Amino acid sequence: MLTLWLVSAFILTIFFVQRLRAPIAKLPGPWYTNFTGLILIYQEFSSNKRLYIHKLHLKYGSAVRIAPNEASFASLDAIREIYASGGSGYDKTELYDLFRQFGIKTMFSTLEKYDHSQRKRELADRYAMTNILRDEHVSAIKDRARAFVSRCVASASSVDVYVWLHCFALDGVTNFMFSPGGLRSLDSDKDFAIMEELTYHQSLQKNLLQYYFSGLAPYFPECLIPRRSPITNEYVLKMAAQQSPAPHSLVGKLARKDSPLNHAQVAAECKDHMAAGIDTTGDGLCFLMWELSQPHNMVFQEKLHQELRATASLDNGDGAAEQRTALDRLPYLDAVVKEALRCAPPIPMSFPRYVPSGGKSIEGYFLPEKTIVSCQPYTVHRLDTAVFPEAEKFNPDRWMEENRAAERNRLFFAFSTGGRGCTGRNLAMVEMKVLLREVYRRFRTTVAPDMNASMDIDDQIISSRPKGQTCRLVFTER
């Protein structure tokens, strides 16, 4: 028995010594992160990982150890190294395998940089600003923005903008992808069902079970399997097989005769973009309108209204150049959107990557290959209070100041950065600006008396949303 105890003690001693001598042990962090990642996994399943990591950064600084083989960073140098070095940064971790569609890897779920770049070449021009601002796309976005306003003002009292903003986002992204077969969920009950299927679900814990216990996943009972989306799948498969899609649409490019993608791959890519388009625009706009409608933020809403009213004539131009000029001449609108995305990024949590072969130094710390490293926008947008003073406050005016403007823009991480940054960024920004222009040029929004749902950020597996999934506002015509 004594021998057994001695052997056990010896093995434990070797374990502790190895952990404490590992390169990652030199990073600051709680002592227990040298020995176990279970605390981090617990925080993840509790929907608290983002805030847990953020609190560690507040205590330990811009570089922190969060598990025996994982570190989090929040500096510009780290962002550039992890996400932009070599053009596309480090390879993704297996977490992104969760985001296959129809069991097929998409651009987003491709782990290796080279394979990703090959897929991105097939669709990058569709998301170029010159294509986004085509008359056909802008006209569709304007039409959907007006339909959103009609829905909201039709209510005599309060209206749940969370619902209709997700309809607007769904209609916008599907018209962009599948024209002329885009959805009209703001007008159609049948299309509305697709919005509900994609929006009202819990994606965190069940997906994490698939990730951490992938070997057992085939044996999980139905209650542990992530919610399926049969209505959406049927629609996407049908639209991906369109015989005559508009040449400027996404599917028009992906499903062309000489495309290297087959029908299933086209459908998978489109479904991925469709889901991302709802989260980015719908939730981003919801957090934004909620902030603008707060009594203490009414001054910002008034500034936005004044700019939109003074530049109303700019909305009459045709063509991509004129539309871009119109949006570029609205600096306060741009500031409002950026501040909302700073406070509540569509994906506020970490973007995990593997340190490449040979290891790398980040912020002066050497990390061996296969170490998991990441930055999370929520912390990047808050930690440096010299760049973002009073970082917890919604304040679009900060983007209008010349002092430290370059640093603010470099630390704006809402859409990630580098070759693997958000492909749909231009579409999301145009959709948000067109809708806000339609609303705040003519209306004032205030928090409804019957609004009692939580607007705290609620993390899902790869995105965030208001915790209560309700945002009741009152629209008043000016």
From TrEMBL:
Residues 1-19 form the signal peptide. Keywords: Signal. It comes from the Eukaryota. It holds the Pfam family p450. Belongs to the cytochrome P450 family. This is Cytochrome P450. It comes from Aspergillus pseudoustus.
